[in-house]
Amino acid sequence: MLFTVAIGLVIACLLVPFGKFFRNNKSVLLALVPGVLFSYFVQKIPEIGSGRVLFESTPWVPALGVSLGFRLDGLSLLFALLITGIGVLIFVYASSYLKGDRYLDRFFGFLLLFMSAMLGLVLSNNVILLFIFWELTSISSYFLIGFHNRDEESRRSALTALSITGLGGLLLLAGLIWAGNLAGSYSIGDMLNHAEVIRQSAYYPVILVLFLAGAFTKSAQFPFHFWLPGAMKAPTPVSAYLHSATMVKAGIFILARFTPVLGGTALWQWALMGVGGFTMLYASVLSLAKRDLKGVLAYSTISALGVLTFLLGLGTDYAVVAACVFLLAHALYKAPLFLVTGIIDHETGTRDLTRLSGLGKALWPAALAGGLAALSAAGMPLTFGFIGKDLIYEATLHYESGWAWYLTALAIVTNVGLVAAGFLAGFKPFTGKVQEEFRHLHLPPALLWVPALVLALLGVVFGLFPGWAGAWLTEPAVKSIFQQYVPVQLKIWHGFNTVLILSLATLTAGIIIYLINTPRFRKSEFITVLERIRPGVVFGWLFIRTKQFAAAYTNFFHDGYLRSYIIKIILFAEALLIYELYRGGPFSVDFSKLSPVRFYDVGIVFILVGALYKTLKTSSRLTAVVCMSIIGYAICLLFVTYSAPDLAMTQFTIDTLTVVLFVLVLYRLPPFLKVRNVKIMVRDAAISILFGGLLAVICLRVLLEPTRYNISDFYAKYAYTLGKGRNVVNVILVDFRGFDTMFEIVVLSVAAIGVYSLLKLRLKASEKE
Amino acid sequence: MRSTILQTASQYLLPILLLFSFFLLIRGHYSPGGGFVGGLVASIAFVLHSFANGVESTMRIIRYKPMSLIPIGLGLSTASMLLPLFFGKPVMTSLWVPEQLPVFGSVGTTLFFDVGVYLLVVGVVLTILFTISLFSE
Question: Of A667, A730, A762, which is closest to B29 when you measure between CB atoms?
Answer without folding.
Answer: A730
